[in-house]
Amino acid sequence: MTQRISKNKRFWMMNPVWQFFKYLWLSLKGMLIVAGGHGSTRSKDYQKSH
Questions:
Q1: Which terminus of the chain, N or C, has less C-beta within 10 A?
Q2: How far apart are CA 1 and CA 7, in angstroms?
Q3: Residues 6+ apart with CB under 8 A from 39
């Protein structure tokens, strides 16, 4: 049997203001990871030789 979502959780999930701030936070985290040098799939040796 599936579990029902409480009204409070549903309110937070459907709240567009909260979703906007969550989007900004996740975008910022992603940019920091990529800018920190962890976003590449190629090794550093390959990047230095090309």
A1: N
A2: 19
A3: 33
Residue 3 has pLDDT above 70, yes or no: yes
Residue of 19, 2, 23 whose CA lies nearest to 11: 19
Vertex 22, ends 20 and 1: CA angle to 5°? 110
* Residue in this structure with the two tokens 């203001």, named with its chain if needed: 17
Q: What pLDDT digit, counting tens, does each position of 17-49 carry?
A: 999 999 999 999 988 887 776 656 666 666 666
The pTM score is 0.54
Q: To which residue do tokens 């996740």 refer? A: 26
